[in-house]
Amino acid sequence: MRDLSRTFGYRLILDRLNFRVDRGAVLAVMGPNGAGKTTLLRVLSGVLKPTSGSVERSQRIGMVGHHSMLYDALTAAENLAFYCRLFGITDRNRVQEVLDLMGLSRWQHQRVGTFSRGMTQRLAVARALLAEPDLLLLDEPLSSLDEYGVDAVLQLLMRLRDEGTSMVLVGHEVSSVTQLATSIGFLVGGHMDVIEELGGRDGREIAERYREVVRG
Amino acid sequence: MAEVLTAALAIAAKDISIELRTKTAFMSALVFAILVLAILFFARDPTAVAAIDVAPGALWVTFTFAAMVGLNRSFLLERENRALEGILLSPIPRSSIFLGKLIGNLAFVFTIELISLPIFMLFYDVAIWSGLPRLLIVMVMTSVAFVSVGTLLSSMVVRTRFAELMLPLLLLPFLVPPVVGAVQVTARIMAERPLNEVAGWLKLLAAFDIVFFILSLMLFEATLEE
Description:
The complex is a heterodimer.
Chain A: E1 2-8, E2 11-17, E3 26-30, H1 37-45, E4 52-54, E5 61-64, H2 76-86, H3 94-101, H4 117-129, E6 135-139, H5 147-162, E7 166-170, H6 174-180, E8 183-186, E9 195-197, H7 203-215
Chain B: H1 2-22, H2 24-43, H3 51-79, H4 83-89, H5 94-124, H6 132-157, H7 163-190, H8 199-223
Helix pairs in contact in B: 1-5, 2-3, 2-5, 3-5, 3-6, 3-7, 5-6, 5-8, 6-7, 6-8, 7-8
């Protein structure tokens, strides 16, 4: 992304951001509430257009946002089959594969409206993985998951990273950030000029650095 | 083009299957249509006004407002869980979202019209069997007109706080020409008069369909922007 800015009305949310995420790299973005982290992901995904600047992105993007982007009245399998048609996925087994991957096969014929928040979140991850994306945009992907779910999703994301999937991760859990991310950016006041390689730093160090950046 | 159509049909099929399962808009529109037909029928003094004089107007008022229920629901579905963003993430042309919604809305509106029509015939006792094929053509032409504009406006107002109130306010002025045209043509069909008497209205309906379909398709992408 080059000199990317985004405003809502007169409010400048993202101010001339410049960064790139290489193949297999995971950029974690941390920042206080309202810093524009979700807006950044939505611009990266193409759902929002930047006010100025440009984004070069891969064709296959998967996104897990605050909302599941699923239809409550459809079953888990129907939701995924719908997205398969939109992504032009012709492999009939793909729905079953991602459901198995997320441990949701037992509930595939159940309507999403009857799912718990954790199950919905797992299905949202399944939806994001359907098209085997090159770039995954993850907005607090571990929220609402139980301990088993956190562990399973984290292991899966680490495996995808090792296989070459790039990711931009927004999250507050320092432990997951240190396990998954390869670099970290702190988004404060629309700026993200601090991008640091993680290279073996521990969680305490990152948390301390984060507090410093937020305090200014 | 095949890609646009495939995605559009997927979206339409999804909307129709959600509606078949929940029947939310369908039941509301149907009950509404029956109520309007009944109220307009009983409001008329049969000794002063013949049924045939008010029937075309009653029919199109019913169809127009019943359709509004479905058009309102169309994009509210996508607001739930921000499903529209999921669609926008897929690599489909954005025009296919409009086409998919249009097809789904047309299916909905036409179903409501086809169910309401026998109820209307029952209330108003008008013999339209001989003119039925011609009436069906007018129904298709008029439905395309208001569903084209309605789909565009429904997408535009869905992010506003009063979406369900805003849609009729914005849509009704656009509907005046096609609905007036439809009433005029329907009146001639019911009176078993030749259609060349209303050739002008038919041309207006056709022109409205073409112009507003193309305009809505072109403007749709702008309504997806925040």
